[in-house]
Amino acid sequence: MSTPEHIAIILDGNGRWAKSKGMPRNYGHTVGAKNVETICKAANDMGVKYLTLYAFSTENWNRPASEVKALMTLLESYLKNCIKTANKNNMRVRVIGEISRLSDDFQQKIRNLEEVSSANTGLNLTIAINYGSRDEMIRAVKHIIKDHDAGSISIDDIDADTFSSYLDTKDIPDPDLLIRTSGEQRLSNYLLWQLAYTEFYFTDVPWPAFDKNELKKAIDAYNKRDRRFGALKDDTEDK
Question: pTM for the complete prediction?
Answer without folding.
Answer: 0.91
